[in-house]
UniProtKB/TrEMBL annotation:
Name of this protein: F-box domain-containing protein
Domain of life according to the entry: Eukaryota
Matches recorded under Pfam families: F-box-like
PROSITE patterns, alphabetized: FBOX (PS50181)
InterPro entries xref list: F-box-like_dom_sf, F-box_dom
Sequence ranges assigned to domain F-box in this UniProt record: 9-55
SMART domains assigned to the protein according to its UniProt record, in alphabetical order: FBOX (SM00256)
Amino acid sequence: MASLESEDVFPIQFLPIELIETVAVFLTPKDLAACCAVSHRMREVFGEDMLWKRHCNQELAEYLKITPCKLEPRFVSPEDENSTLSPVSYWRMAFMRENHLWNNWRQGKSKTEQIINQRSAASPYYDDSICHIFHTSDVILGFFRDRIELLDVREFPATDATHPIRLHSNFCQETQLKSGNNMILTLRETRIQVHEVNLSLKVCSLKHEFFFDNSEKLCNGEKFRPNSSRKCLYAMVGVFFIGVIKGESTMHIWNLETGEKLKEELCPLVRSCQIMEIKTSDTKNLVISVKAGSEDVIILAYSLTTLTYLTFKETYKNNVAFYVNENYVGIHNRGLLDVYNYETTDLLLKDQSLSSHPQFLHSNFVFIDNETLKLFNPKTRVLESTPITGINWFEIMCSKFIQVKRNWKNEIWEIGGIFERTKKIAMDLWFDSCAFYLNKTCTRYIVRTGVGSVIHFW
């Protein structure tokens, strides 16, 4: 009878690939790997790119493929040139590389390299920088009082990715720095310098220079007269730059690619008002807090696509904090959180208590309520508790790991998916995660505790 039953079983590897793809949705990478180990045919079928691609970070895949490991043991391809097996598919290999990276995180394996100041007259180990930030996953910006250095941290000591940017003599510690879209902005009061970066040619050149409250960019050198009372707000979204003089209600909007001023946008409120804060998201939108009169704080939204204010408007009788992700804004007022879709003006969550400012995991708001980590999905409007409880502080480190404090002791947890699976891991930090800057690929971070260092996980 047993033999008859076994004869009736249709081998899964001979099913049409469309059916196998449907079945594979319910399989974990561990399940897929086990299927690949059964036979040559199963290896070919369950090693297909279409089955592995959904388990990979597509931006990370190409980066890990071309970036050498600094950390031992390095990733080694399982393929042998003498093997008679079919080659490992692109996306299965990509998953193996990613898993190697995440295993280094899980096991707390890393390599620390100090950021050496090779231009210091005192000592290469004397850090007189104002800050270090990532420009790309492998290049950091070192911001000094007289220059900006672009350093390639794939090497040690880090090498110059381009020649340094020499800062104007009037630039000082009050100068701010923004980076993105192959551009570096230095900002002091209303004077903006835009440098264009070409890392393949190792070139960094001044592209535009302008006073954002003027109508045109500078063609010739114009003397800068610092005014210590003239504080400004700045925002950068793709090729858009937005500047506001504090105490005023006008946004000055520029195209950084062309150096053209696009618009001077007056606040639409009738009453006397001033823009207090501007926040950006991955969309080409801004969310703005405006103080109107002596008490009211009004939250508005603005589209950089149409260069117009949106219809969204919420008024509060006291100062509020607000947090923006995609087309959603969370407004934190007196210990309660309201979440809106500022494009449609829909109220998605009202008067949710919380004891920490919200952070974001993908599109979701994550916060602590009653010592429990909770998650709100604004797309489905579902609020749920995660398995992480008894905590009084947290910091999302990346899409896979979170640092929490339980009884004031640090713990690192791995979060699978959107908290579908959680697991405390062995990794331990000798500093709070809020003291570091992580790159986009989660392969390195900069620590600003003591002398600056780069921690490598790849």
